[in-house]
Amino acid sequence: MHTFLDLDSVIYLAVNGTVSSLPVFIQNILNCVPKTNKAFTGLERHGGKTEHCVFRGITMYDKTVWSPKPCVNCLCSSGEVVCDRILCPTLQCQLKFQPIEECCPICIDPAIDDPEFSGDPPAPNILGDPYDEISQSQRDKKDRLKKDEEERIRKKDAERKQREKQKKEEAERQRKLKEAKEAREKEEELRRLREEEEERAAAEERRRRMEEQRRAEEDRAHRLEMEQREMMRALEEAAERAQEGLRGDKATEDEDMVWLRGDVFQMPPAPPTRAADPTLLLALQEPNEPGEEDHELGEEEPEVVEEESEMVTTLLPPGCSISDVTVTCENAKLMGIPPLSIPELKSLSLQGNEIKTIPAGAFNGIPNLEWIDLGKNKIVSSGIDPQALKGLKFLSRLYMDGNLLEQIPSELPSTLQELKINDNNLKEIEENSFEGLSSLVTLEMEGNLLSEGNVNPQAFKPLKELTYLRLGRNHFRSIPQGLPASLLELYLENNLIEEISEMAFNHTTNINAVVLRHNKLDESSIAPLAWINHRNLESLDLSHNNFYLVPSFLPKSLIHLVLAGNQIERIPGYVFAHMEPGLEYLYLSYNKLDGDAIEPESFFGTFNTMTELCLDHNQLTSIPMGINEMTTLHFLRLNNNKIRHISEDAICDPLNEDDSHLVALRLENNFLDPRKIPPTAFSCVRSYSSVVLKPQRIK
Questions:
Q1: What is d(CA 76, CA 386) in angstroms, rounded to the nearest whole number?
Q2: Cβ-contact 575, 604 below 8 angstroms
Q3: Looking only at Cα atoms, what is the longest distance across the chain?
Q4: Are 407 and 430 in contact (CB under 8 A)?
Q5: pTM here?
Q6: CA distance 610 to 637
Q7: What's the CATH superfamily of 569-699?
Q8: CB of 272 within 8 A of CB of 318?
Q9: Where is the composition biased (Basic and acidic residues) (predicted)?
Q10: pLDDT per position as a tens digit, 155-173
C-alpha cells in the first residue's frame, strides 16, 4: 500500500529526528540535500544556534524538511535552507488522478504497490491468486468504458461540427435570401419609379397634346368664325349689289315701257321684291332643266358648280364638313341636330357631340338619308320624338352607341337593316320593341343592363331576317329565349351564363357561330343534347370559363373550337371522334395540361382534318401523342411548356414519305437543348426557318 503524509507530518518527523520513519523517496531527498543546488535565496541563517534554520519566523531543526508551496520541498541543512522542485515519478497504472494542491498525480486503480516507489518489500506473487484475473477484467471494463467515452466524445464532437455546419449553411442561405429579397425590392422599387416616371411622362404628354389640341380647336373655330363672317359679309354685299342691279334694271324697264306705250298703257307698279336670304339661297335653288337659257353659257358651268360647293360649305355649322353626299360633324360641340336642307344627302355623322334630344322635324331637310351616326352623345329615351325618324323612308343604318337610352326608340323606319345601341342603359326589351323591323339583319346591344328577366321572349319574333346578334357585356345567366330561326351568329361574351339547357338552341337550327367567352360555364353545366345534333354550328368560343376537361357532346359539325384560358387538365379519349367531317382549329392555350393530360385516343377523329393546333402556355413535359399522325396539320404551337426532349417520331412520322405539311412550328421557352434534337425530328416541316426554338429556359 502507498503511504501518504501531509506537510505537517513530514515537518514533525523531520524536527523530531525520525527521518528513518519517512518514506524511502523522502529519505533519498534528505540524503541528497548536500549535493542539491540552492534554488531560493534571501533566507536567513539562524544567528544563535548552529545547525538551526529560521523560515518566515519559524525555527527549524537541522535536517527538517517542509514544503512551502506545492511541488517545492525545502530542507534545513547545517543552518541553511535549501529548496528544490519535486520530480514526479512515472506511474505504471491505467487511471491517474491529481489531488488538489498536489503536484504529482496518483493511481486510483487497485494495483499492487511498486516497491520501487513505495519502499515496501515486494509481495510474492502467489500462484493461483485471483487478484490478477480481477484486475484484468476491471481493466478490460475500464478500457471499454474509455472507448465508449471516447466514442461518445467523438460523436458529440461530430454532432457539434454538423450543427455548426448547418448553422453556417442556414446563415448563408438566409444571407442569400436576404440579398435576393433586397435585390427584388430594389428591382421592384426601380420598376415602380420607372413606371411612375413613365406615367408622369405619359400624363405630361397627354396634357401637352390635349392643350395643343384645345388650342388647335380654338384656332380652327376662330378661323372658321372669321371666314364665316367674311363670307357672310361678302354674300350680303353681293346680295345688296344684286338688289341694286335689279332695282336699276326695273327702273330702266319702266322707262322703256313708258317710252313705248305712253301714259295710257302704263303698267301698275310691281310689289316690292324682298332680298334673298344668302343662307337659304343655295338650298332653295333648283338645278336648271336642260334646254333653259342658262345652258347657253356652256363653258362657264363648272365655275358655277364650284361656287355652289363653296357656298354649301359655308352653310354648315363650325366643325362640319361635306364630301360628296356625306356630312361629318364629329366632335363639333353641337347641342342639337343641325338644321340642314340638302335633299341629296345620304350619310350624316354627328358622333361625339352634346346632343340630348331629337325633335320631330330634325331631319325634314334631309329626307333621303340612308345612314345616321349619333354615337357618343347624351341622348335620352324621353328626348326622342316618336316622329323624328319615322319620315326617313330610305334609312338602313342607325348607330346610337354610347348614349343614355333606357329603351329601344319607337317608330323606327321599316327599312332599317342595321341597328347599334351598344353601351347605353337599356333596362328592358318589350314585346313590341322591334315591331315593324322585319328587314333588320344586324342588331347590337352590348354593354347594357339586359338579362333573361327583362327581355321578353316574344321581342325577337318580328325580326324575320336577323342573322347577327350581339348581347355581350350584359347580365344574362342563361341563353335568351325566343331567338329567331334566321340567326347565324350569336355573341354573349362577358355575361354571367352558368348553364346551357337542352332547349337553348332548339329554334336556331341554322346558327353557325356562338361566342360564350368570359362566362361561368363548366363541363357539367352543358346539357348533353344542347347542341350535339346541330348540323350548321361550326364555330364555338368557350374560352375563359371554368372547364377542367374538354367538354363532351360538342356539336357534330364543329370546325373551330376555342378553349383557351380555362383550367383544363385533361383531354378525354375520343372526345372529338363523333365530329363530321372533323375538327380543323383547336385552341387550348393557357390551360393546365401536363404530361398525363393527353391520352393516345385524345385526338382520334382529327388526324385527317386538323389544320391548326395551339397547346402553348401549358405544363407539357413532352410532345403529345397523336400529333405525328395529323397529316393536314399546318400550324403547331407548343411554346411556353416544360418540354425537355423531342424524339425522332414525336412530331413527324418517319414512315410517311408525303410532302412536308407543317408550315410553322413554335417550340421556344421550353427546356430543350437544340443540340440533342434528332436531325430528322422536323422532317415534315416545309422550311427549317419556320421552326422557332429560341429562346429556351434555363434548366
A1: 145
A2: no
A3: 202
A4: yes
A5: 0.58
A6: 13
A7: Ribonuclease Inhibitor (3.80.10.10)
A8: no
A9: 138-226
A10: 888 988 888 988 898 898 8
